[in-house]
Structures are given as C-alpha cells and as structure tokens.
TrEMBL record, chains A, B:
Keyword vocabulary terms for this entry: DNA-binding, Transcription, Transcription regulation
Protein name per its UniProtKB record: HxlR family transcriptional regulator
Gene3D superfamilies hit by this protein: Winged helix-like DNA-binding domain superfamily/Winged helix DNA-binding domain
Domain HTH hxlR-type: start-end pairs: 9-109
Top-level taxon of origin: Bacteria
Entry's Gene Ontology molecular function annotations: DNA binding
Leader peptide range in chain numbering: none
Transmembrane segments annotated in the record for this chain: none
Short name of any one Pfam family annotated for the protein: HxlR
Length: 114, 114
C-alpha cells in the first residue's frame, strides 16, 4: 500500500502529483532521465536533499511505478536506480517546466532551504 | 522578498518548482486556468485544502508573479484571483501532467490526506 499522501482528487493532474509531486520528486526524475544512477550519485546531484529524504522519495517512486532498481552483483555490489517506461513518459512535463522556469528568479545565494 | 523555500538549484525545472511546486500550488493554477475565481470558489474546488494553506499558496503565487487579483468594488466587494500571462503559460505542463496521470492510481476513498 502506498505510503505517500493523496489529494483525494481523481483528476489526472492531482493523481500525477500524488505520485511525483512531493518535494524533490520531480528533481529525482529529472536526474534519472539521462540514465541509471546509484544512490550516491543522486545524492551528490541534489545538494539540498538529505539521505533520509532521498531514500523516502526513491521508495515512493519505486512503489509508484516510476523508478525501478537493480542490485548489481560482484565486483560492484551496488544498487542502481532507473526510470521505468512510465517514468520516462514524464519527459514532456519536465521539458515544459524547464522552459517555463527560464523566466523564474534564480535561487538566492547560499545553501538551499530544506 | 519571497517567503517560499528554494531548491537552490539554477535549473529551469528547479526554479519552476520553487515558484509552483509547493503542495496544492499546481492545483490552484489548474483551477484558475478556466478563468478568474474568488477565494471561496477555489476553496470549494479543493476539498482537502485548509483556508490557511490556500491563503499562503495564493500569497506565494501572487508574489511569484503567477497569479494576480482584483478587488471588485460595490456591489460585490470581493477579491477575484486570476492567472497572469506567465501563469497561463503553465498550461502545457498541466496538460502533460493530466495525460500522464491517467495511468496513475485513483485516490483512496475517504477524505484527502493534508
């Protein structure tokens, strides 16, 4: 059973946000679009996220069917996360957000607010 | 000065989410796409949102340049909120989220989780 919150709204937009709308969710999807990544790579690419929040978000995205993972055997013995096909279908959403955001203010200097 | 959080990430996606990514933000934009609305209409259309959160979100969206408002004089004496041109430019994001969300699970029965 899903552990994430729901808007309780049957519209497609609300149901999408139930799956990927929590803080950092769409940025994790953005960073997996180029290809599979390990947890440490994702963590390094999102300076403001804590390991706990990244773990929770990945767990929700896996539960939601947006991300999948593989545990690579020897010699690496690491877990690699990747988008599912449905996850990759978010590309147009991210493309339009990227365009729209060009007119948004640049972030304030200093560390991101959690 | 903006009161909302920032990811501290200069990408267009992160900057978009700094402006409209907080919980309920994109649903308020969705409900203003058809045209201007009063606070009470917005509140009625988002069953899970509290008046305080809606007020905060509207304040942030106005501050962010996504929403504007007019105070109508007599006889109505009400405040009407509407999307700015930049706000309306979010339409493709919402359209793609709506499509993507058709494959997302329907919300659980019962009241939405706050």
């Amino acid at each position: 059973m899903s552990t994430s919150r729901s808007y309780g709204d049957p519209s497609g937009i609300a149901r999408s946000l139930d799956v990927v709308g929590e803080r950092w969710g769409l940025l994790v999807v953005r960073d997996l679009l180029p290809g599979p990544k390990q947890f440490s790579d994702l963590l390094a690419g999102l300076p403001g996220i804590s390991p706990n929040v990244l773990s929770k978000r990945l767990r929700e995205l896996v539960e939601g069917g947006v991300v999948d993972y593989q545990d690579l055997g020897a010699p690496d013995r690491v877990r690699v996360y990747e988008l599912t096909e449905w996850g990759r279908d978010l590309e147009p959403v991210l493309r339009h957000l990227e365009q729209w955001g060009q007119r948004a203010p640049l972030p304030p200097a200093g560390p991101p607010s959690r």
